[in-house]
Design goal:
- The protein has about 250 residues and is an alpha/beta fold.
- The chain has 2 domains: about 110 residues, 3-Layer(aba) Sandwich (Rossmann fold), CATH 3.40.50; about 120 residues, Rossmann fold.
- It is about 45% helix and about 10% strand.
- Helix 5 runs parallel beside helix 8.
């Protein structure tokens, strides 16, 4: 199988270790990975603000990087960015190439569970107590976990990947799928509300004795880590790819 690695701009700039872990993890499972080096932002921040003119500029660059690649999938380690491409990438003309590119785009956890169908990570050891944070975009946009507000069968694809790891303890916090308050540009336009939501999330982790918060979305972890660090808590935050790959931490 051959995939293109979609590296969101904030991961490239702030958390390159997450991109490295994703690449190494895919290669461990004999996936051939190509990385378009001219990729930039997918346009999500401007799209969130209704700025279609500037979104179109970024979408055009994204399409130029990915639409002509001979790959089976375009894999991204960020639910909100993948959701943007799959569901809201409409500032540019929807040509056949663009439509096909969007259809091939998939979030990393989805790819591991639904495409590669990997169930056993018992070769990995992570002797810590963790909580899983799936972003709102991942849960309610991509469906990688069930929604607590819906009467539906309970599932959590991120937990399916982590539960076979040796020595790991997965604890369910009181409000596991409540929004952390990041919300992209929301944390700028509604700073006070965003901060309080993040503080509530951090308090929930501490109340339940969590050591590490593990998520498929570094944007949410960036927000929560900022609040945690300001409060000087012992909490640590990692992307799921880093844990599954056994580093880099």
């Amino acid at each position: 199988m051959k995939v293109a690695l979609f590296v969101p701009c904030y991961i490239d700039l702030i958390y390159p270790e997450v991109a490295i872990a994703t690449l190494e993890l895919l290669e461990k499972y004999n996936v051939e990975v190509v990385v378009p080096l001219n990729q930039t932002c997918c346009g999500q921040p401007t799209a969130n603000e209704g700025d279609q003119e500037n979104s179109a500029k970024m979408e055009k660059i994204f399409a130029e990087n990915f639409q002509d690649l001979d790959v089976d999938y375009i894999v991204g380690p960020a639910g909100s960015c993948v959701k943007q491409v799959k569901q809201h990438f409409d500032a540019i003309p929807q040509t056949d190439k663009v439509t096909a590119m969007r259809a091939k785009t998939i979030e990393l956890v989805e790819f591991l569970v639904d495409v590669l169908k990997i169930k056993d990570f018992s070769s990995v050891s992570f002797p810590h107590t963790i909580a899983i944070h799936n972003s709102c975009s991942s849960i309610r946009g991509l469906g990688i976990a069930s929604r607590s507000e819906w009467m539906e069968p309970r599932f959590n694809k991120t937990e399916q990947l982590l539960e076979s790891i040796k020595d790991i303890t997965i604890k369910h916090i009181n409000r596991p799928d409540e929004c952390c308050g990041f919300g992209g540009t929301f944390c700028v336009t509604d700073e006070a509300v965003s901060s309080k939501m993040g503080q509530d999330k951090v308090a929930d982790y501490l109340h339940n004795g969590i050591e590490y918060v593990i998520s498929p979305d570094m944007s949410c972890l960036m927000h929560q880590k900022g609040i945690s660090d300001k409060q000087k808590t012992p909490l640590k935050f990692l992307h799921v790819a880093q844990v599954l790959n056994n580093g880099p931490f």
